[in-house]
Specification:
363 residues; elongated; alpha/beta; Sulfite Reductase Hemoprotein, domain 1
């Protein structure tokens, strides 16, 4: 992993083959939607999510069957697995024994402090990381008091308990469905927390709402150097969680290899259905991890100017023809019927070049 700009220094925590915190790059994670006990479907989804760019994947452990499936899931996947456990400390012990890279617990609902202590001892012996996950929806909040302070105090009390009992391989998160609460709680948490912080706005709703709420809370935190892993939680396709996270980090200037499509918002000047091209190219690029800027512009008003900043760009000339730009320079005119095919061929060429360069560097 490469080093990251503008991070608040924290303890480095090993999670599988990843090092989280310190000045390492921000790690993207998501969570499966399959029943964990269905090993075949869960493993397949984990592999798909990893292909899209998830570096950590969390699975829910709701019952005995889920707990029993963990060892096989870990064996069949290369992606570090996080076991998400509530209400049953025995499941946490079994997850640790199964070899998961990290467990996520809300210590307040996992059982007694004696049971939490058993988890810490087992995790220490195995080298398993733990995330203390404080969620506004599962905490008993006094409406007369500050929601932010109550969330932060809860997190700090458990951090102190973990430290008192000799456990430091720790990641902390405070999440709320309200983006402002999430923001202010994490600002307060970061003032004295020496451990990596996982960021996210929980229960944020459908994609459009999740994007807006996540941006409100996470962008200022990330700009302040707060946050070492993130999840964009949306009520929809997990692939979109990863795409949104990568797009956010890439556009903020973090070293996340991802594509950027520059496309006009459509208006009466458009003389061709560029929306179809945008959809096709977006789908074509989503699992390639290619740092490339592609312009798809519908007219010559703003098109040529935007094309100059792109690796590959199309600017519609008229109903039958478009201008093709390569590395910001006008290359030629091509029929609109050839645009999709041409863009994909040029993307493949750049992708193959990138793969060869990567292989050369890692020989």
């Amino acid at each position: 992993m490469s080093k990251c700009r503008n991070r608040t220094s924290t303890k480095a925590v090993k999670v599988g083959n990843l090092t989280i915190g310190e000045y390492n790059e921000i790690v993207i994670q998501t969570m499966t939607t399959t029943k964990t006990s269905d090993v075949e479907k869960t493993v397949e989804q984990i592999k798909q999510l990893n292909n899209y760019g998830a570096q950590l994947v969390r699975v829910a452990v709701l019952d005995e069957a889920d707990a029993s499936a963990l060892a096989e899931i870990v064996k069949k996947t290369k992606t570090p697995i996080i076991a998400d456990i509530h209400f049953n400390y025995q499941f946490a012990l079994r997850a640790i024994a199964a070899g998961v890279a990290k467990i996520r617990i809300n210590p307040g609902n996992i059982g007694s402090k004696e049971q939490v202590l058993q988890i810490l001892q087992a995790a220490n012996q195995k080298g398993t990381a733990i995330r203390i996950g404080i969620n506004g929806g599962s905490l008993k909040i006094d409406p007369k008091g500050s929601r932010v302070i109550q969330l932060v105090n809860c997190a700090y009390s458990w951090i102190k308990f973990f430290e008192k009992n000799g456990f430091y391989n720790l990641i902390v998160s405070i999440k709320d469905s309200d983006p402002s609460t999430t923001y202010f709680a994490n600002v307060e948490l970061a003032k004295h927390c020496k451990y990596p912080i996982h960021l996210g706005v929980t229960e944020s709703g459908p994609d459009h709402a999740g994007i807006v709420k996540s941006c409100i809370a996470l962008i200022p935190l990330l700009n302040m150097g707060i946050g070492n892993t993130i999840r964009i939680s949306v009520n929809g396709d997990r692939k979109n969680e990863i795409k949104i996270a990568k797009t956010l980090l890439n556009n903020m200037g973090f070293n996340i290899p991802y594509y950027n499509i520059v496309a006009c918002p459509l208006c009466g000047r458009n003389q061709y259905d560029t929306k179809r091209w945008v959809k096709e190219i977006d789908q074509y690029l989503e699992d390639k991890h290619l740092a490339i800027k592609v312009g798809i512009m519908g007219c010559i008003v703003n098109g040529p100017g935007e094309a100059q900043g792109c690796d590959i760009a199309i600017c519609v000339k008229d109903k039958t023809t478009s201008f093709l730009y390569l590395n910001g320079t006008l290359n030629k005119e091509i029929p609109n019927t050839e645009v999709s095919k041409t863009l994909k061929e040029l993307i493949d060429k750049k992708y193959n070049q990138a793969v060869k360069h990567y292989e050369k560097l890692n020989k």
